[in-house]
């Protein structure tokens, strides 16, 4: 890569990834889809799918916000590493999810890190894979005068870094993905994948269950 191309490639990669909170949260699906290559794969806590299937699931969520989870994203910061025609973006994000439980509006806030694996194909940058890791989360009532108890017995078995989010997802009939913690082997595997991606190696997305690829 020519040295003069590096700043542009970094800037373009950043611009693409910033479309996640701006386009998705506003249901700008055409703009959102433009971020990704056709075979892109998305791995989140609530669904794992190709980009087109992920968009359809997201549309359904918007249609049923009253009975589902209303999701918004706050981007805090981002770094981009570029090597040749590949790039990795690591983005600090707070996900906010609103849901009504037993007549009480609740907000879940989850601090996490988004990972975008990008590639330049035929002169166009796009996302090939996206996933995330969770640092911590909490659950609070929207009205501070309300008190809500989440039984500890219902939290057992969920990862400590995002157990309240897992609880919410289970409440709406989604099976939460359990290997997205930003501490321990989940992190080590993903960081190894990011390095492999930059080095031009084949990287497979984390589909369902536990990612057991040897790294």
Automatic annotation (TrEMBL):
InterPro entries assigned to the protein according to its UniProt record, in alphabetical order: NTF2-like_dom_sf, SnoaL-like
A Pfam family per the record: SnoaL_4
Domain (SnoaL-like) ranges: 15-129
Gene3D superfamilies documented for this protein: 3.10.450.50
Name assigned to this protein: SnoaL-like domain-containing protein
Protein source organism: Lithohypha guttulata
Lineage of producing organism: Eukaryota, Fungi, Dikarya, Ascomycota, Pezizomycotina
